[in-house]
């Protein structure tokens, strides 16, 4: 089995996770129109059958619906799964008890008594200090309701600060979940990738398929559903910008008899401390994405993308 460790913890997960933002989200993804509960249930089951048993969700996805669906699906599955969810540092949450209450509500929707990973969704510090927030999460690790702590969308300095606060409690900061794909490589320039390597923090790469662009299916008159309709990257001019990357992806896909999505996800896994968490709306997408595990591009092939940085 192709696995990865969450930072300096002893928690092992599959080398690729499955993102569940689109499970129940109407606002961005248009859940309930072109796909619904039956399809995402099949995505859950297909992912598990293909060995992708680590799922990423958040209390704000749906809102609440993504966690509820996962909870319901887990009840009918006999295979063990690992769940990562997220806490939103929102304006009305200004004390440690609000963190614990949010976790209680997530566990209730997920119908379980602990999660593998609990992440702070954004680095907002106006309402509650990082000290209060992370120390409350450390208490939850000690209580056993969280196995590991992560942050999300933190810059290099914020990640180091969170790492230091938790280190004083003897708990490693396991992950920083950030946007990272062949088409979104800002974390390389912003020193996040290097800092994570230095501190032994795993990066969970979100939007690893650039919300579908790296599947190479958005060409000609095929347009995406939901909010992506307004995204310039899915129009002719945007698609032209990414062609240099896609042409290498296509070539490697042909060489390995894989798909462009699998090559793009594999490139992320080749970075060493990166776990991609692609979204999947149905059985086919879940199984295809899981097929990025179990093999690797060569170092030379990974290097072919080194200078091909697209601004978006
Ligand atoms: N922490 C954060 O702030 C944050 C932000 C964003 C996302 N996330 C997490 O990261 C996960 C993934 O990111 P994402 O959903 O934004 O983008 P993504 O994984 O790059 O793209 C997902 C979309 O691409 C299409 N797709 C996926 N696999 C495919 C396949 N094999 N073949 C064809 N099409 C495929 C599907 O949409 P269509 O079929 O409609 O094209 C799917 O909804 C989320 O579910 C969430 O868990 C976290």
What can you tell me about this protein's structure?
This protein has eleven helices and ten strands. It has a single domain (3-212, 261-297), classed as Alpha-Beta Barrel (TIM Barrel), CATH 3.20.20. The protein is globular, with a radius of gyration of 19 Å. The chain is α/β, with parallel strands linked by helices. Helix content is 39%, strand content 14%. The site of NADP nicotinamide-adenine-dinucleotide phosphate (NAP) has 29 residues, from helix 10.
Short description:
The protein is α/β, with parallel strands linked by helices and 312 residues long.
CATH class bucket: Alpha Beta
Helical coverage, percent range: 25-40%
Computed Rg: 19 Å
Q: Give me the secondary-structure category.
A: alpha/beta
Q: Give the SSE order as H and E letters.
A: EEEHEHEHEHEHEHHEHHEHH
List the helices and strands and how they pair.
Layout: E1 3-5, E2 12-14, E3 18-19, H1 37-49, E4 54-56, H2 65-75, E5 82-87, H3 96-110, E6 115-120, H4 130-143, E7 146-152, H5 156-167, E8 173-179, H6 186-189, H7 192-199, E9 202-206, H8 236-256, H9 260-269, E10 274-276, H10 283-290, H11 299-303
Parallel strand pairs: 3-4, 4-5, 5-6, 6-7, 7-8, 8-9, 9-10
Antiparallel strand pairs: 1-2
Bound molecules: NADP nicotinamide-adenine-dinucleotide phosphate (NAP).
Feature tags:
312 residues; alpha/beta; TIM Barrel; two-stranded antiparallel ribbon; 11 helices; 14% strand; globular; binds NADP nicotinamide-adenine-dinucleotide phosphate
């Amino acid at each position: 089995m192709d696995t990865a460790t969450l930072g300096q913890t002893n928690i092992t997960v599959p080398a690729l996770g499955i993102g569940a933002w689109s499970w129940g989200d109407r606002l961005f993804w248009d859940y309930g129109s072109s796909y619904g509960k039956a399809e995402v249930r099949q995505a859950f089951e297909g992912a598990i059958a293909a060995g992708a048993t680590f799922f990423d969700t958040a209390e704000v996805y749906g809102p609440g619906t993504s966690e509820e669906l996962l909870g319901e699906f887990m009840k009918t599955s006999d295979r063990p799964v690992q769940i990562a969810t997220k806490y939103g540092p929102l304006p009305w949450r200004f004390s440690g008890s609000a963190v614990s209450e949010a976790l209680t509500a997530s566990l209730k929707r997920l119908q379980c008594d602990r999660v593998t990973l609990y992440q702070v969704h954004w680095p907002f510090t106006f309402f509650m200090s990082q000290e209060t927030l992370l120390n409350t999460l450390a208490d939850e690790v000690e209580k056993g309701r969280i196995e590991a702590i992560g942050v999300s969308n933190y810059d290099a300095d914020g990640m180091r600060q969170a790492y230091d606060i938790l280190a004083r409690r003897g708990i490693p900061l396991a992950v920083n979940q950030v946007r990272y794909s062949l088409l979104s490589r800002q974390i390389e320039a912003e020193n996040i990738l290097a800092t994570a390597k230095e501190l032994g923090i795993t990066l969970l790469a979100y939007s690893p398929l650039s919300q579908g662009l790296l599947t190479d299916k958005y060409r000609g008159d095929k347009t995406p559903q939901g909010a992506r309709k307004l995204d310039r990257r899915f129009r002719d001019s945007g698609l032209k910008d990414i062609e240099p990357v896609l042409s290498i992806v296509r070539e490697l896909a042909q060489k390995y008899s894989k798909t462009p999505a699998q090559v793009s996800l594999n490139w992320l896994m080749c970075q060493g401390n990166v776990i991609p968490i692609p979204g999947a709306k149905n059985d086919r997408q879940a199984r295809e994405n899981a097929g990025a595990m179990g093999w690797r591009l060569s170092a030379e092939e990974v290097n072919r993308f080194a200078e091909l940085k697209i601004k978006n």
